[in-house]
Records
---
Amino acid sequence: MPSPRRIPLRSAVRAWVYDRVIAGMTADWYRNVLARLPDGARLLDVGIGTGEALARCADVVRAKQLAVTGLDIDRDYLARCRSALERAGLSDRVSPVLGSVYDHRGGPYDAVYFSASLMLLPDPAAAIAHVASLLSPQGRLYSTQTFHHRRSPLLEWAKPLAQHVTTIHFGRVTYEHEFRKAFADAGVEIEELTTMHSTRRSSYRLAVARVPDAA
Ligand SMILES: C[S@@+](CC[C@H](N)C(=O)[O-])C[C@H]1O[C@@H](n2cnc3c(N)ncnc32)[C@H](O)[C@@H]1O
């Protein structure tokens, strides 16, 4: 992993674009989820990205004394993540880890969080089932992301194109029935699906899920 001062220009630009386009919105999502966690919780953040969204919530992370493992497969984002965490004074609370969710061995965790990272995975159900096995008995799985209310072939076509231009993987256009199916296939129960913000076409929602028969 290159040190923050030696990040190649292209990598730095990718991470910068990401922060301009995404982090402002997802920081609010993180804040919503972090507010629900118990003090001292051990959190697995799947797809921490550049860490900017989490860094903007540094006050909550410190006040609650959270211990966060931030997982990501993108070296460019993780390089920026380390400097964002350092700037936010979170280096002792958040550990960035290079690796894929499917291979991660860690925990137990009190919470696993997918912020805009679940439905872009090749097999969301397998990822849910795997991280569910890393949860403590009282643990919960959280997910925040955009849902589209009606089928939009135009958007389904445009999203991959947007990824090509911006280098940001926006994931597939997600509809509620697909999201629910991923959890059902994983044998994990959605306890709550709250709308944080809604427009005519789409909404930002927060899901909380648990392993049945656990606490
Ligand atoms: C849209 S970004 C969201 C970043 C951050 N959670 C946020 O909300 O601002 C999705 C992130 O998931 C990461 N990702 C994609 N596949 C992954 C995998 N298999 N394991 C871990 N992270 C992955 C991407 O590299 C990217 O950083």
---
Amino acid sequence: MSGTETGSGTAGPGGSPGRRRPLGAGTGAAGPGDPVPSAARSGPAPAASASASATSTAVTGIAVLVTNDPALGEGPLGLVRNAAVVLDGERVAWAGPSRRAPAADTRVDAAGRAAVPGFVDSHSHLVFDGDRTEEFNARMSGRPYAAGGIRTTVAATRAATDERLHANVARYVAEALRQGTTVIETKSGYGLATDQEARALRIAAAHTDEVTFLGAHIVPPEYADDPAGYVGLVTGPMLDACAPHARWIDVFCERGAFDGDQARAVLTAGAARGLVPRVHANQLSYGPGVRLAVELGAASADHCTHLTDEDVDALAQGETVATLLPGAEFSTRAAWPDARRLLDAGVTVALSTDCNPGSSFTSSMPFCIALAVRDMGMTPDEALWAATAGGAAALRRTDTGRITPGARGDLVLLDAPSPVHLAYRPGVPLVSAVWRRGERVH
Ligand SMILES: [Zn+2]
């Protein structure tokens, strides 16, 4: 099953042969995959947490801890009951039964709450300005969603100041953090001109290490009569200006956006510049996106709502994660992606918000978990795995999405005795405490 494939093999701190480092866009010392502190690097032994200067915190009294490491506990989620976690510096130093917890500088009593890894939201569009409330309102009154609505946001984003866009991104990252999201990817795609796309990426990189160049979101109005010319811009001067600021390259492969040949040109040009592909694929209709993603070794194919058997087979046989974005189907009253079909085929599935002002204006991973369980055939355990370790897999990261020695100290306490409550109590603000990189931030 998907949970074990990427959920195991990384119990050691940072030394796994499978550990992949990010390809750039790091903002400094605290970038993802950066060298682990000496306390964690020296090994998983509890004694490591006693190292000199870093302040350690023991979170004890956890009713159920989700580690996502089958070596540490039951099942694919690696469940540990009556558990404790020790955070030391930015990292997890120790996780296991409370009775065996090593000493730490400070202690937090979880008082019977459940604890899960910080959510990894591997797909969002946060660099934007403007309001589309009326579009949503109209759509809920019966008008079907069309990709062209993006142009409204493009106009508003181009007109916004840098300060305004920074403030918007900061607001949504903070909003997500309060709901337990400790890693968030975000994209350009509302500039659609060389300087505007580069600006969006620089702004995004100030708020997250996971930045994606999406110049190929739609063809902007200036190129309405010359889409080939726009693809030439995206794969030429725009890519030159944007590649230094991004880790990933993405394309909206869809009717009304970019066809298979155009998407291939965009992704291969980006890959030649060191950007790793990810693809908006098969959201609104059947098409070539998913198979192209797998063929090009994309990290993820996102949406996967309209899939043929051949698409599912390709995902099952390839390395590409299927990222499902139920907020989009919710907000457009569209048919749900069939997560059950993908999981039964052995595909690795991630859940993400797709947070954007047009088709999915939620930053809540718990909401997406609830939708996935209620409407997409996922079990509560599968949905939680997909929202944590699955998201990490979609970002090719093993340093987060799990609570295991050496991993980032990204931990969420729930005001609930079981992580199943994330789906069982939809819409309820269950996140009561969040640590990111070992620091309590909520
Ligand atoms: Zn998207």
---
Amino acid sequence: MAISGISRSVTASALQKAALGSPATSQTATSSASGGSGTGGSTSLLLNALADLTAVLQSYANASPGPILATSGPAPETLPITKDAQGGTAKVSNALSQITTDPEGQKLIQLAEQKGYKIEIGSTGEKAAATTDSKAKKIVVDINAKGLDSYNLTATIAHELVHASTDGNGDSLLEESLSTAVGNRIAKRADGRPETAAEATADFKKIYSDYKAAYKGDGAVNGRQDNGILKALQSLGLDVSPFAGVI
Ligand SMILES: [Zn+2]
């Protein structure tokens, strides 16, 4: 990870030097033209100097293409896809790149990547479209799961990344609900329709209520209502204010 980041940063720097090399050469020509205007002060020399200056400014403008800005800065982290039993690598890669360009998604991916998580595409053997195995450090995505369109795939993987990035504290009803709420928030932003705080709160309340109804008895997952997930997400730098104190 670190090696890849350094390598990209060197490439961007080299590109920048190469791009700046062209105007620097032209500038030398301008200096000599300006020197010429000093000796005679003739109009034609001044016009030549102005023409050179225009050329230099133009070359600077041409030498600042978008790709240099796009490749500068740290390379986004992502998770390796180590197995694809269903031919879904392109779809999962696309979802991962959406998540990694989201400010909150990037935090989740970075932590999951540091913990050594990988992604496998195959049957989860359950009703869930995806599962997180905290022991094997892998997220399994069933690309053929019903209703798993591009938006839901991003939301589902982001949900699993909440589990993966906070895998030291087990699971709970609150963690399941928050994972879905955060996953939806990331997917909606990636889809160009970010939630307001009020919408995020309403979304979370409904999700929690649905999960609670699905888990009869005490309403807990793995016997617990809460496993400290709200504080864990807050410490990762995620905005939990729309979810805190509403249930
Ligand atoms: Zn879950």
---
Amino acid sequence: MYLNCSRCGLSLHTSRFVHIEPGYCPRCLARARVLQPLFRSPMTVRQLNANPNDQNISPRPGPDASALPDPDAA
Ligand SMILES: [Zn+2]
């Protein structure tokens, strides 16, 4: 299992942090003073980005205007 940073792509193996797991990316904190939360994944960011199936994100459809209540109906 890895702790990954989506901002800079840093991947840390969790076995390195048996007692303390960093909640934020140490690289982003050191370089950009940004508290970037890490996310757990069985793969590294590099491996995740290499998987084309994970890039298949469809855009959310916008709100349907016909679903809004019609003020003239009441
Ligand atoms: Zn980072």
